[in-house]
What we know:
Elements: H1 9-14, E1 19-23, H2 24-27, H3 31-40, E2 44-49, H4 60-63, E3 70-74, H5 90-99, E4 104-108, H6 116-122, E5 126-128, H7 131-134, H8 139-155
Parallel strand pairs: 1-2, 2-3, 3-4, 4-5
Amino acid sequence: MVTNPSDYVTSLAKAGASGFTFHIEVAGDGWKELLKDIKSAGMQAGVALRPATPIETVFPLLEGEEHVDMVLVMTVEPGFGGQKFMPEMMQKVNVLRKRFPWLNIEVDGGLGPSTIDEAAQAGANCIVAGSSIFGSQDPAGVISILRVKVEEAAKKGF
């Protein structure tokens, strides 16, 4: 989470980034210009929201002709690894999946083998996992579990 996401669009595009995700809480009313800049730079655009931010806040970013490609639902407060997964955030994922079935929905925070089913069944199809992978004796095994669970949920239609 950075305070001036527009300051980073050009440099990340030049570095080869394929996507750029910004926090709606920081972008505020400037999100339309930021979205245009991200797309003009050839990147996919994503928007993240913190646990306390209502899901309806991102609806305008999904309903126009120019919309974000992904919504990241934070399942912990941003900034610190190893936090506990907040299962109540899965309601946000569920709302997004039902209203925007085409959308990539990412979840970040506290994801691992013990929480992946809940996230995948709610409709998350992109998973960010740090501590559960890097703290594991078998990182490849954890990645495989996460991938299989998301793929299984997607086949069932979330």
